[in-house]
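Run log, item B.
One chain of 145 residues. Sequence copied directly from the ordering sheet:
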Amino acid sequence: MFSTSCHYGLQAMLYIAMHSSKDKNVELKIIAEEQDIPRHFLSKILQQLVKSNLLHSMKGPTGGFKLAKSSEDTTLIEIVAAIDGLGVFNKCGIGFKQCNDKSPCPIHDEYKKVRKEVENLFRSKNLQTLINDVKEGNSIISITG
């Protein structure tokens, strides 16, 4: 449903949320290494997130990235919107360009419900809820680099 760029953006934002603070930035190199994301590819993704006002970028010896607003105020849907756009929640599950309510593909009605559920999930979750899940051990992965 989401592009590789979007998946990497979500992972990087969670990593930055867990490791940055008011006085501490997270370096691109560290995020790329810890999350196993190609550095050049990640750089472009993070710049998109900076342009969308979800991240701040600083240069110099203490440079790197940090959240532009609190983890409580940063929803997953904002990250998806910045990278893939919200149109991703209207695309056909099979990939037909003309699929819509009037000309549905074979899975249109069921997939439309699933898309809506995923959209609602991403609207309701913020970075802090994900951080809490990781810290409480409720997540199957740990982003603790």
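Observations after the first pass:
- The domain at 4-135 is CATH 1.10.10.10 (Arc Repressor Mutant, subunit A).
- The longest helix spans residues 108-124.
Flagged for discussion on Thursday.
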